[in-house]
Amino acid sequence: MAFFMKQMVGDKLKNMTGGGGEEEAKTDADGKETPQSKGMSREEFEEYQRQLVEEKIQRDKEFAMRKAERANLRVALRDKYRLPESAQDDATIQMAPGEVDLPEELAKMVEEDEEEEEANSTFLGKLQSMDLDMDFDTIKSKAQTTMTEVKQAAEEKCVVM
């Protein structure tokens, strides 16, 4: 009910006070802003439009750079985990306006992980990572002692042995 009242009375009030005419003056026939709609002179309006275009270009460059940095990170992670390469990421990196580098922290993380993998990939590296600084004779005697203890415990508990 309130909608109908507002619709009927509102239109008549706008016509009496001239409220509908302001919106038409803000744009020209094409629907574009005019210097008069902004309250500026023609030169000020052109300078304003030029600044808007420059800001948009700068935003686009920054966006492309961030996009390329993310693609570069994905490429580094794909290399690290031996995943197939993506042509889209390569194209994104090439389209970047400048040199694209990994952030220092991420580059350090990737490098540390690669070093750990290289160290752990060899047998000696695995032994070192297990903190076994003993020689093989010591390991052998320890294993024999443990087996003897287990065998004695089993003989005590088991009647068949």
Helices, strands, pairings?
Elements: H1 2-17, H2 22-25, H3 35-38, H4 42-80, H5 87-94, H6 104-121, H7 123-129, H8 136-157
Structure description:
The chain is built from eight helices and no strands. It is elongated and about 115 Å long. Helix 4 (about 40-80) crosses helix 5 (about 85-95) and helix 6 (about 105-120) crosses helix 7 (about 125-130). It has about 160 residues and is mainly alpha-helical. The protein has helices spanning about 1-15, 20-25, 35-40, 40-80, 85-95, 105-120, 125-130, 135-155.
Describe the structure using short key phrases.
single chain; elongated; mainly alpha
Query: What is the number of helices?
Result: 8
Q: Please give the alpha-carbon distance between the first and last residues.
A: 98 Å
Q: Portion of residues in helices? A: over 70%
Spatial extent as radius of gyration: 38 Å
The fraction of residues assigned to DSSP E strands is: under 5%
The run of helices and strands is HHHHHHHH
